[in-house]
UniProtKB/TrEMBL annotation:
Entry-linked InterPro entries: Kinase-like_dom_sf (IPR011009), Pkinase_fungal (IPR040976), Prot_kinase_dom (IPR000719), Tyr_kinase_AS (IPR008266)
Protein kinase domain residues: 94-337
Organism lineage: Eukaryota, Fungi, Dikarya, Basidiomycota, Agaricomycotina
Gene3D superfamilies in UniProt: Transferase(Phosphotransferase) domain 1
Organism: Ephemerocybe angulata
Protein name: Protein kinase domain-containing protein
Cleaved signal peptide residues: none
Domain of life the protein comes from: Eukaryota
Pfam families: Pkinase_fungal (PF17667)
GO molecular function: ATP binding; protein kinase activity
Amino acid sequence: FLGSVLNLTFLVRQIFSHQPNRNFVRSLIVTESHVRLVHVDRGGTYLTPPINIHDDPHTFIRLVLGISSTSEDVLGIDTSVQWSVDPKTGRKSSGTLKTVGDNGKAVVFDLTTDNFPFCRPEAVGRGTVCWYGTHPDTGKRVLIKDSWRTEDNAPETLFLEKARGIDGVVQMLFHEDSCAETKRFAPEHCEPRGFPNRIKLRVVLELYGQSIWFCESRHQLVSALRDAIAAHHDLLNRQVLHRDISMYNILLKGPDSGPGRSSVLIDLDLAVWAQRGVSNTKADVNKGTRMYQSISALCSSDPTNDHPSPPLDYLDDLESFFYVFCHLIFGSGRPGV
């Protein structure tokens, strides 16, 4: 059974990648005498106890019918995302995504087919999916971000609200704080229990350019990095510490952005509140992008380190900016390479 579960977990990752509007995946492991239901969502992997298919054929048939259902909800698909299929090619030709606007009414965005959704590769965890859509009223392109946070983490929307109006920090248009919860998915009598409950958050954001990795000149690189640090300072003045400075969380604004800063800080998933530049949260190497983390954060994961991890402060983020700069200087052959 263990080998089958490991193989199935790999296949589940592929399903989440190719069907980004999946909330969970269910499958069966069948032997000549037993069956087990495997349920995987962003919280964890659950297994039913082995069920003897000869002694209890009715349950076996119900399980087969359940995972063969024509109901998208039963199969774990988020029905707020809908696709149209070209009858000639059998491929997705267009799609829509429904969420809630500031006035509490439903807003339906057309999903663009020229940009594939971005999906984080893991099956369990934040499971971030970024959709590219078009605003139904203005016609402007937007980014719609779905992610799964644990209950003990503050929602990103709290920090995005604080960031409103800061030039150089991602701007939020709409948000839906609780689209789904993993505790409502897991079948009864599954084991192990006790995985953290994760809540699905949907945020509609302004769309920006490419990562700073695609800078085309030294002047553009230095300007973008300087502007990102200045935006980080403005964010800190509102008691928000970013905590996940990385290459792909600094975006270029693009040629049509108008006056103002040339880059944008995005992704406040891991942000924390900070007083006078210092947070109450200790360094955690398991959160953030390890390649750009400060020495202090990295040392916190060293089992031979007898010193307690210090609280995070703005210097840890500035150190991350420095490592991004080093990566760009020493690791870039040409824009994007």
